[in-house]
Specification:
Elements: H1 2-17, H2 20-34, H3 36-56, H4 59-62, H5 73-85, E1 88-93, E2 104-108, H6 115-126, E3 129-134, H7 143-149, E4 153-155, H8 160-177, E5 180-183, H9 201-209, E6 212-218, E7 224-225, E8 230-231, E9 234-240, E10 244-245, H10 254-276
Parallel strand pairs: 1-9, 2-5, 2-6, 3-4, 3-5
Antiparallel strand pairs: 6-9, 6-10, 7-8
GO biological process, one term: phosphatidic acid biosynthetic process
Transmembrane segments: 45-64, 70-87, 137-155
Pathway: Phospholipid metabolism; CDP-diacylglycerol biosynthesis; CDP-diacylglycerol from sn-glycerol 3-phosphate: step 2/3
């Protein structure tokens, strides 16, 4: 019996020593137990890597219908299931406000790189939503190619004229293909309690296309603290607000519309964040 046990132990050790993947997994688990900072970096790395892989692996299938938003449906389901293993779950409210026949602009607050998983969760509800992201992401091959094939819109933030041309084309797609552009009006991600001032580009797109604006508020990621390097467990509450029509509006209305949406989203962000805090543990 002792010889058998010894043989099993030696065989297991040989498997471990010859498997880099197994060594990495064990190192991540041990590191997570010893250090919350290590856990933060490990979780962020694994989630970003997972998001990369689930989108890149099916690229051959995307070629059958390129630029189709629902190409990302299955990868999104996998990504949401995976992040749930890390203790993060999503609660969606306000689905009754979604009208898939309406193209338009969906406004979201931007908090972290893991917002990519949140967007994939929303795809299941909207089904016609495509994110607008910075052009630099397109050059992260093959992730950029995969993103392009699922309909992601790339804009060059450093080139205002180019960005405007892209958004004008997408304004046509809003009307013609009933697409909803998911835009982060703050322009950059942050984890503050107060939303950053909204840029007006997304509002110009909605007014130019005479379509709707639909605010979607995501509660604060209390389980995630980038400054203290903490990544715990928690619930994200996402609230889909009623559509705001822009029919009949002109460019003269953009400033007032921007301010109204910012105030609305800040009020809802405060309420949802206070509620979500009780479900979060670092």
């Amino acid at each position: 019996m002792a010889t058998l046990v010894e043989g099993i132990m030696i065989a297991a050790m040989n498997v471990f020593l010859n498997s880099l993947s197994l060594q990495v997994v064990v190192a991540l688990i041990v590191g997570s137990l010893l250090s919350s900072t290590f856990k933060y970096h490990a979780k962020m790395f694994i989630i970003v890597l997972m998001s990369f892989l689930v989108l890149v692996v099916p690229i051959p299938l995307f070629l059958f219908k390129p630029r189709w938003p629902l190409n990302a449906l299955i990868p999104g389901i996998v990504a949401c299931a995976f992040i749930r293993l890390f203790g993060v779950e999503y609660e969606i409210r306000g689905q009754e406000h979604i009208n898939v026949r309406n193209g338009g602009v969906v406004l979201l607050n931007h908090q972290s790189a893991i917002d990519i998983v949140m967007l994939s969760r929303l795809l299941r509800e909207f089904r016609n939503i495509v994110p607008v992201v910075k052009k630099e992401l397109f050059y992260m091959l093959p992730f950029g190619i995969a993103s392009y094939l699922v309909g992601v819109v790339f804009i060059d933030r450093k080139n205002t004229a180019s960005a405007k041309d892209v958004m004008k084309r997408e304004a046509v797609a809003i009307t013609k293909d009933h697409l909803k552009l998911a835009i982060f009006p703050e322009g950059t991600r942050h984890d503050n309690d107060t939303l950053l001032p909204f840029k007006k580009g997304s509002f110009h797109v909605a007014v130019d296309s005479q379509s709707i604006i639909q605010p979607v508020i995501v509660s604060k990621y209390h389980f995630l603290d980038h400054k203290r390097k903490r990544f715990g467990r928690g619930r994200v509450i996402i609230k889909i607000m009623p559509e705001i029509p822009t029919k009949g509006m002109t460019k003269a209305d953009v400033t007032e519309l921007t301010e109204r949406c910012q105030q609305l989203m800040q009020t809802e962000f405060d309420a949802l964040s206070a509620e979500a805090k009780q479900y979060c543990h670092n």
